[in-house]
Amino acid sequence: MKLLEKTLERSELEDMLLSELQNVGREIGIPGVSKLTKRDLILAILKEQAETGGLLFRRGILDILPDGYGLLRNNGYLQGEGDIYVSQSQISRFNLRQGDQVTGKV
């Protein structure tokens, strides 16, 4: 796996043509780029960037607690060790709501 010179943000990737995304995917070692849809390729690039940059890429269902902060739950709304804290400011900033499926770098 090869690191890119700079981290590409989702908005930058969405503005690229599929052929440009395929080139980026090949450059960082994503297999089968020609078979991926644009959306799937963008997600694969973001995931690869996060993992090679030492970050983890996680997904979960947002459970907003009475105190205003939230937790990303991996197993429906059941509490678990893999729950990820989401601050009240992030919930407000991204206009998140109870039950939203959220994916991001942690």
From TrEMBL:
The Rho RNA-BD domain, residue ranges: 55-106
Keywords carried by this UniProt record: RNA-binding
Recorded GO MF terms: ATP binding; ATP-dependent activity, acting on RNA; RNA binding
UniProt cross-references to Gene3D superfamilies, sorted A to Z: 1.10.720.10, Nucleic acid-binding proteins
GO biological process terms on file: DNA-templated transcription termination
Origin superkingdom: Bacteria
A Pfam family hit: Rho_RNA_bind
Record keyword RNA-binding present: yes
Keyword RNA-binding in record: yes
InterPro entries recorded: NA-bd_OB-fold, Rho-like_N, Rho_N_sf, Rho_RNA-bd, Term_rho
Similarity-based family: Belongs to the Rho family.
Protein name, entry field: Transcription termination factor Rho
Source species: Candidatus Hakubella thermalkaliphila
